[in-house]
Design a protein that fits this description.
0% strand; globular; Ferritin; 225 residues; mainly alpha
Length: 225
């Protein structure tokens, strides 16, 4: 008898990340609706316990996820902004290093820097006065020297930074409850995943694993306290 051996299914976060990487920015919010609705229904207990099968069917409802960020979403989105601010600062270091880039490389790095700046502004607009407006100092301190060295090292550091950002935002996305917050974070991580591909190519890599960022960095976590 032949026995089919199936590979273990990837976890929910891996499936979600693959789905997001395959869609454009406009589809991010739509793609997230079933995911967020499932989270909402899973965390909302039924108000009246059903007594029969027909009652169970009638009582099965789905609670829509909130549109605006919840109290629990605010610190997560604030942390995401701090990571984006750190990325912007690091690209400023690279762009401020004389003679590091040729015109094409500078244009690419400047475009990536502007993307991070736009995400800072978008998160600020979503959070309003609750936005921290402070860069993650640990990220800046750890990577600053790498963004002012030789060209290949700077591009590799930028590649690693984008991978860190994607992993961090993917982790945050799995914890968010609101549609607005999740849609924004999804749209950010989609583009930053593509930044990694661009940077790998800019650094001369032709390896598929490098271009697809197969070995993703570990996600950052907010400092406690």
């Amino acid at each position: 008898m032949d026995i089919d051996v199936m590979e273990p299914a990837p976890d929910d976060k891996a499936l979600l990340r693959r789905r997001l990487l395959g869609i454009g920015l406009g589809g991010a919010a739509v793609s997230l609706l079933p995911f967020l609705s499932g989270r909402a229904s899973a965390t909302t207990p039924p108000t009246t316990p059903p007594t029969t099968t027909s009652d169970t069917t009638a009582a099965t409802t789905t609670t829509a996820p909130p549109l605006r960020p919840t109290d629990g979403d605010v610190p997560l989105l604030g942390f995401a902004q701090s990571v984006e601010l750190a990325a912007r600062q690091l690209y400023d270091v690279a762009l401020g290093t004389n003679g590091l880039f040729d015109d094409t490389q500078r244009a690419v790095i400047a475009a990536i820097r502007e993307s991070h700046s736009a995400y800072v502004a978008a998160l600020s607009g979503l959070l309003g006065r609750l936005a921290p407006q402070t860069a993650d100092s640990a990220v800046v301190d750890d990577l600053k020297s790498s963004f002012s060295g030789k060209l290949a090292d700077v591009l590799q550091a930028a590649y690693g930074l984008e991978s860190i950002a994607v992993a961090t935002h993917t982790d945050i996305l799995g914890q968010l409850q609101s549609i607005d917050g999740a849609a924004l974070i999804a749209s950010i991580l989609v583009v930053e995943a593509r930044h990694g591909t661009v940077l790998a190519s800019l650094n001369g890599s032709t390896k598929l694993d490098d271009l697809l960022v197969a070995k993703e960095a570990a996600a950052l976590a907010p400092a406690k306290g």
